[in-house]
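Lab notebook, bench 4. Continuing the backlog of folding jobs that were queued last week. Each job is logged with the same field layout so the records can be merged later without manual cleanup. Today's entry covers Murein transglycosylase, a 269-residue chain. Filled in by technician R.K.

JOB TYPE: sequence-to-structure
TARGET: Murein transglycosylase
LENGTH: 269
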Amino acid sequence: MATTAMLAAPIAAVTPIVLTTPAMAAKCGNNASGFNSWKQAFAEEAAAKGIKNRGLQALAGAQYATKTIAADRNQKSFKYSLKKFMQVRGASTIVAQGKKKKNADARFFANIEARYGVPAGPLLAIHGMETGFGRFTGNTNMISAAATLAYDCRRSEFFTGHLLAALKLVDRGVISASTRGAAHAELGHTQFLAGNVLKYGVDGDGNGRLDLNNKYDALASTANFLRAHGWRKGGGYQKGERNFRAIQGWNAAGVYQQAIAIMAKQIDG
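JOB STATUS: finished
OUTPUT FIELD FOLLOWS
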């Protein structure tokens, strides 16, 4: 099943970034004033790393995402107690809906567990936590968000790699310049960053295409991510158990990790 995130949609006309000589190092900034100059410099770096014309055009069209910066500075829920965090994030609803979705797609989840060793519970807990099972995947331009975070001095090094990955995905037609995601440039049903799409993205429904806005691709990719981060079939995944480390690889916030483990166990029964 193809979506606009999968097909190489026509890119709106933009003024190409002109590469200059000698190359200038892209310098981070803390407000919008230097963003366009940064794009000029970063385009040279991106081209040197193999980004082609389609990706460079997508970068040229990127806009400074003020909502992304606001979201990045205001992640209050991760500071809550575990009980408060689960209440705010609707844990009981996620568990109830997760159980229904597990039963409705039992064959798919059985196949995923056989292939990757990951049972339905953790995948559905992540799916519910990240996007309400695909209902809220984000409305921020993915390239603009990734470029803004790569430019912003707070975590420039971390997001530079994800921006380059996003531009590679544009070059390959997996996403387009207009693809939308969450505020931090996360994509699809389980909110993959672009670098993780390149590393762990798999075709979960067997149609020959990778599309993280397809729930089956997203869930299979999430299972592949967890396996790559140490998940072993049959192992426990509560705090202190072996597979909990794989959940830690998914998100760095302790309350998030524990919430996923608790909800997953309730879904799995």
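OBSERVATION: The chain has two domains: 32-72+138-186, 80-137+197-268.
SIGNED: R.K.
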